[in-house]
Amino acid sequence: MSNNFSPVYNRRSLLKAAAFAPLAGLALSGCSTKSSSSAPANSTVTVTSYGGSYNDQLTQTILNPFAKQSGIKPTLLANTSLAGLKAQVQSGDVQWDLVEITAPEYETAVAEGLLEKFDYNIISDKGLPGYAKADYGIKYLSFLFVMAWDERVIPDGKAPSDWAQFFDQNRFSTKRSIYNQLSDSSVLEAALLADGVPFEKIYPLDVDRALRVLGQHPGKDKLLYHSTNQEPIQQLTSGEVALSTSFNNRINAARADGAKLNFTPQNAVLAGDYFVVPKGAKNKEAAFKLMNFMSNDAEAGAAFDKVTNLTLANTPALSKLPKEIADSLPTSPKLAEKILLRDDKWWAQNLKQTEQKFKLWQAS
Amino acid sequence: MAQATLARARPGAGGPPSGAPPKRRRRAGWLLLLAPVVVFDVLLFLTPLGKLIGSSFTGGAYARVLADPLVTRSLVNTLSIALTSTAVTVVLGYVIALVLWRSGTVMRVILFAVVLLPFWTGILVKNFAWAVLLQDNGLVNGFLHNIGLINAPLPLLHNRFAVIVGMVHCLLPYAVFPIFSSLAAIDGRLALAARSLGAREAAVFRRITLPLSAPGISAAGLLVFIISTGFFITPVVMGGPGDMMIANEIDYYARQLTDFPGAAALAVILTVLVSIIAAVYQRVLKAGGQHETL
User: Fold this and answer.
1) Which of A177, A199, A327, B31: disulfide with A244, CB 3.0–4.6 Å?
2) What residue ranges are annotated as transmembrane (chain B) (predicted)?
3) Percent of chain A clearing pLDDT 90 (strictly above)
4) Chain A residues with CB inside 8 Å of B69's CB?
């Protein structure tokens, strides 16, 4: 008799087990994520940047030497974004420790209370140039927004030397690729420069005029858009376009890989990115230690400047650089006459409306 | 010994030996089978969905979003792109299903492979492959230029045409299979009878095949339309800025504007809009005498 019932019981307990299996799985996975990240705090640091060749360079010149010196293990991700930072801070599950964002995004993040205050007891500000130090971050990087071309189609001798030539349809009948967002790029400044506005009169930006200029030269049908920093390199090397906006380090990296691309610092726009620490970051101290290393270690800083051709906010590094490299850095006094300094303040106040206008212009 | 009792016990457990209690127990057992799905849905679908809907009602998100001309534009884009690609997909899908249905075993296997291969390929791969084919210096323009048909490249990429091409390619299997299964269910003797009474092929198609496969067509239409309203990557890779669909606008709100309630409101608007259209579609079909839809 009891034998008759036992299979039924077995089946029921099986069903129960089946019903709760997913729960068990969830519970288990919950445990495992916790245990893996609750390795001693500040023995690791998760850094996010924009990916591509730049991430390799950052790892090679800064993160690896930092790991060797400090014993802290850095992980570098390629998907940095203010949206990601905000989502993590709001959900209370902060995975990132040191996050790269653009200058206008920095102002937004501060205003929305998403960031940890920087601890300048851990970070020595001795190595920091005046423009770099901020309450909630360090403007650690300066780069040039430049015009780039495909040397196979446009030999250097015939290349554009200012934005008017870059956008001139009579000079170059090919398509041009421009960045589809403005937080990081200076497409509108370029358009105004092309229209003959002098450097000192660019800001406050006349957005309508800039868009009108873009619509006339080269015209919308001659414009393609890119949405990541590495995309113009693909568009140029694949022959989809022969001219593109880009950043000086990206073109240099592509050249080092053998791509027949070039750019000019003439008429470039000098802009910068911040490193910030999200509110509630698990490895805050490790992040500050990394910032301290990045801003003060002369060897690592010089290696970074040399490989990327960007200026790290690290003054001791400058004295270690050969003259020709120091002169070609975005912040070099030699270039000051030729380039426009991006107005972070204007952008911080006007980014959202301007992005919206630009997007609408693109779509209509 | 134990095996023997087990074997005898099984039919006993399955049958109705003694009135109501075991029956109820059995039903409870079957309901318990649903538990994993329910747990899964509640935890991973309904809870986040509820949170999303909740957050869409914070900070005047709907008013903000609906006042944005980009949103209106992308909603109009979404509807017009989805309707166009649904129409094209269903027509092409019907033709393929018809050929599949009428062909012999070998041909059928080959055709199925042709339909299924893209189905198994990632959408990103498919879209980039199309981009390589359609770009200014791509294969299609290169070929047309080489045979002397064109002097300047045709604008085949980064426009509405390209988006439709890319979407139809991804959507075709979703149309072929429902249509094929409704064709396969048609009794072959009907066509034989019609022919024996002197009907031409066109009449057989118009009066037997088409009406009997209509449920498949309407199911395919609804399925393809719903899937096509959610396309994200194809407008990015193959479209221009003017082809932005609502999913791209949601991404823009979330990532560029970091306006999460706005993005949530857009997602809710899309869901409500698609639900209304689907309901109206089914109602219209029912009124037209069809009863078998999704």
Assistant:
1) A177
2) 30-54, 74-97, 109-133, 161-186, 216-240, 260-281
3) 74
4) 360
Are B256 and A3 within 8 A, CB to CB? no
Interatomic CA distance for residues A49 and B162, integer angstroms: 32
Which CATH number goes with the domain that contains A229? 3.40.190.10
Check whether residue A65 and residue A97 sit in a common domain. Answer: yes
Same domain, A206 and A129: no
Identity of the residue in B10, B252, B255 whose CB atom sits nearest the CB atom of A7: B10
Residues in A closer than 8 angstroms to B33, CB to CB, are 15, 18
pLDDT at A34 over 80: no
- Beta strand segments in chain A, E: 44-48, 73-77, 98-102, 133-134, 137-150, 176-179, 223-226, 243-247, 261-276, 311-312, 340-341
CA neighbor of A219 nearest in space, from A183, A170, A154, A276: A170
Average pLDDT over residues B75-100: 96
Q: Which residues of A touch B254 (CB under 8 A)?
A: 83
A41 touches chain B (CB under 8 A): no
Residue A161 in domain? yes
Q: Which residues of A touch B40 (CB under 8 A)?
A: 22
- In this predicted structure, what is the pLDDT of residue B288? 58
Q: Does A38 touch chain B (CB under 8 A)?
A: no
Verify that A126 and A250 share a domain, yes or no.
no
**A86 contacts chain B (CB < 8 A):** yes
Residue B14: pLDDT band with limits 50, 70, 90: very low
Would B110 be classed as within a structural domain? yes
Lookup: tokens for A121: 């007891």
Are residues A160 and A251 located together in one domain of the fold?
yes
Label residue A21 by pLDDT band (50, 70, 90). very low
At A202, which amino acid appears?
A: I
DSSP B242: G
CB pairs under 8 A between A and B: 82
Residues of chain B with Cβ-Cβ distance to A357 below 8 Å are: none
Residue among B142, B122, B123 nearest B134 (CA): B142
- Say whether both B39 and B93 belong to one domain: no
What pLDDT does residue A230 have?
87
- Best probe of the B interface among A106, A175, A240, A362, by most B CBs < 10 A, is A240
pLDDT digits (tens, 9 = 90+) for B247-267: 999 999 998 888 999 999 999
**What pLDDT was estimated at residue B287?**
67
The per-residue pLDDT for B28 is: 78
Per the CB < 8 A criterion, the answer to whether A294 and A278 are in contact is no
Q: Do A356 and B70 touch (CB under 8 A)?
A: yes
Chain B residues with CB-CB distance to A15 below 8 A: 29, 32-33, 35
Whether residue B242 is found in the same domain as residue B269: yes
Structural domain count of chain B: 2
B292 within a domain of the structure (yes/no): no
Q: What is the pLDDT of residue A30?
A: 40
Give the chain A residue nearest B34 (alpha carbons).
A19
How distant is the alpha carbon of residue B221 from its chain centre? 8
A16/B6 Cβ within 8 A: no
Instruction: Please answer yes or no on whether B29 and A23 come within 8 Å at the CB atom.
Output: no
Residue B117, SS3?
Answer: helix
Q: Write down the pTM of the prediction.
A: 0.80
Q: Which residues of B177-205 are buried (b: 16+ CB within 10 A; e: fewer)?
A: bbbbbbbeebeeeebeebeeeebeeeebb
Residue in A16, A19, A363 nearest the CB of B241: A363
Domain with A202, as residue range(s), is 144-270+342-363
Q: Is the confidence at residue B116, as pLDDT, over 50?
A: yes
pLDDT digits (tens, 9 = 90+) for B23-80: 666 777 888 888 889 999 899 999 999 999 999 999 899 999 999 999 999 999 999 9
